[in-house]
Amino acid sequence: QVQLVESGGGSVQAGGSLRLSCAASGYTSFMGWFRQAPGKEREGVAAIYTRGGSTYYSDSVKGRFTISQDNAKNTVYLQMNSLKPEDTAMYYCAADFAPPWASQILLYGDNWSKRETYKYWGQGTQVTVSS
Predict the structure, then answer these.
(1) Chain centroid to CA 127: how far?
(2) Kind and range of the H or E element at 100?
(3) Which has the closest alpha carbon to 44: 113, 108, 121, 92?
């Protein structure tokens, strides 16, 4: 069982920055960030293969958001720059573990952005961007 605790959400004006953190209580193979705005589906934003460092991004955040990790702290970060009002959402951290050969399949293509790829989820942290 892996517990995930997010932090770092808040309110910011458009063009500003925030950094989200997600601390995992146990071993993970890959971790992701998702977001869900009111009335919309939960969407994958970014993911990282924690055993090797490969990263994945949705087109909507590529070039603005950066996912990174601190293995010593078992923590993944999401640095969000040039924030836009449409980035306003509840942000969730997700994680799972699998052998390397399985992780490659689970992260292949757009699989990394699918909710069913991850077993463990955090409670979420709110990000609000005002214009």
Answers:
(1) 13
(2) helix 100-107
(3) 113
